[in-house]
Specification:
With about 300 residues, the protein is of the alpha/beta class. It has 13 helices and seven strands. The chain has two domains: about 10-190, 3-Layer(aba) Sandwich (Rossmann fold), CATH 3.40.50.170; about 200-295, no CATH class. The protein has a seven-stranded mixed beta sheet with strand order 3-2-1-4-5-6-7, covered by helices on one side. The structure holds glycinamide ribonucleotide. The site of glycinamide ribonucleotide (GAR) has 15 residues, from helix 1, strand 5 and helix 6.
């Protein structure tokens, strides 16, 4: 159900078009020698991008492929990704759309960061539109890239308030600070095998009723269910997934959803509930949470 966990450190590539503050956060979270993964390549369509400089300063290979059309860029990018044996591609402020063919090759191993609570506000000029609409909350989304623009399955979201007096600039700064924690966290979940896009054969795997329940969820709730699925699988209880999705898997189902919430940074008040689980189940939940709190 996706290539992760790999059982070895993953080789990460980052595509960035501009200043690269999120790249910087990724370089910090996944340096050379990190057991989970390391950034080995930074690619930009813009030779002036400060992102390239950030990579070079940290001794990471930085390559500019000046934009001369999508076909040329993608041909060279695909060859480089193969030559560097890259496992996962992270778009971080990469302002070009990739073709269906490129996305098809990398689906499940290609993530994007978008500065809104998708599916709301896809596209550009997000913060201006959020302010104009009078939203009280906004945030950011890490998602698997599919063939649409900002439409792929959500992996992780974070929220920040919109405050009185905010301008697009103050809001952008607040969202960026959130993103610097959110993106590395999403990548850790993926590399640990705790996130994957919904499998295409859901009915075959879950049965009609549980698959139907999953498909009826909002795009924002689906990643929680997929994390619970991944946890039950890691605990050797994948047989319970359909019942868990229907709220009928008893204490193991509750434990998986509790851990799935907490792994995404849910209110720590939920942590108190972990203590109420039977010892065997509790040990599994604590193990899963310990993994996320380690570097
Ligand atoms: C980030 O806020 C990211 O969410 C956004 O560009 C910014 C890049 O900042 N991405 C998009 O809008 C993609 N459509 P950075 O260059 O400082 O990382």
């Amino acid at each position: 159900m996706g290539p992760f966990p790999l059982g070895r450190p993953a080789r990460l590539a980052v595509f960035a078009s501009g200043r690269g503050t999120n790249l910087e956060a990724l370089l910090e979270a996944f340096p050379k020698g990190h057991p989970l993964g390391e950034v080995v390549l930074v690619l930009s369509d813009n030779p002036e991008a400060y992102a390239l400089e950030r990579a070079r300063r940290r001794g990471v290979e930085a390559v500019a492929l000046p934009w001369q059309g999508r076909r040329a860029f993608e041909g060279e990018a695909l060859a480089l990704l193969e030559a560097r044996r890259v496992d996962l591609v992270l778009l971080a402020g990469f302002m070009r759309l990739l073709s269906a063919q490129f996305v098809g090759v990398w689906y499940g191993r290609l993530l994007n960061l978008h500065p809104s609570l998708l599916p709301d506000y896809p596209g550009l000029r997000v913060h201006e539109r959020v302010l104009a609409a009078g939203e009280r909350q906004t945030g950011s989304t890490v998602h698997f890239v599919d063939q649409g623009m900002d439409t792929g399955p959500i992996l992780l979201q974070g929220r920040v308030p919109v405050l009185p007096g905010d301008t697009p600039e103050t809001l952008e700064a607040r969202v960026l600070r959130l993103e610097h924690r959110l993106y590395p966290k999403a990548v850790r979940l993926l590399l640990r095998g705790l996130a994957f896009p919904p499998p295409s054969d859901l009915k075959g795997r879950l049965g009609e009723e549980a698959a139907g329940a999953f498909l009826a969820l909002s795009p924002r709730d689906k990643p929680l269910y997929l994390r619970a699925w991944a946890l039950l699988r890691a605990w050797g209880r994948e047989d319970l997934v359909p019942a868990a999705f229907l709220g009928r898997a008893g204490v193991w189902g509750r434990a998986a959803f509790l851990a799935a919430h907490l792994l995404a940074g849910a209110d720590p008040v939920l942590r108190e509930e972990v203590a109420t689980l039977p010892p065997e189940v509790r040990a599994r939940v604590e193990g899963a949470l310990r993994v996320e709190s380690s570097p």
